[in-house]
Amino acid sequence: MTITEFNNSLTALNPPQNISEILEALWYDGKDDWESAHNIAQSQEGTQAYDRLHAYLHRKEGDDWNANYWYRRAKTTMPNVSLEEEWRLLVNQFLAV
Fold first, then answer.
1. Which of 8, 30, 62, 87 lies at 20 to 30 Å from 2 by C-alpha?
2. Alpha carbons 55 and 59: distance in angstroms, whole number
3. What mean pLDDT, rounded, does the chain reach?
4. 26, 95 in Cβ contact below 8 A?
């Protein structure tokens, strides 16, 4: 799946089949369903990829303190890009996995 196909899927009622759980969370987030995305992020706390997703979601929520906690747990720092760019970077990263 390409980023374009992923973006186009945001018009559907359900996420695409056969995508990772993290991509599913990013799909929900892309549809402004933060809560569903956050539930997925919380489902595997302590796993670096899920912690990275968790960090982005708290940054989007506007809770920089909590976001920084999750960025540290994911062994990274808050990126100096827009939320939209961070979302695209994450989608591309997890499409490549």
1. 62
2. 6
3. 97
4. no
Virtual torsion, Cα 10, 16, 19, 22, nearest 10 deg:
40
Two structure tokens written together for 27: 């799909």
Question: Tokens 């990126």 appear where?
Answer: 79
* Mean pLDDT confidence for 34-56: 97
pLDDT of res. 97: 84
Go through 19-44 and write b for each residue having 16 or more CB atoms within 10 A of its CB, e for each that does not.
bebbbbbbbbbbbeeeeebbebbeee
Tokens of 23: 């991509």
All residues at 6 or more sequence positions from 73 whose CB lies less than 8 Å from its CB, including other chains:
46, 48, 51, 54, 55
| 2 vs 61: CA distance, rounded Å | 27
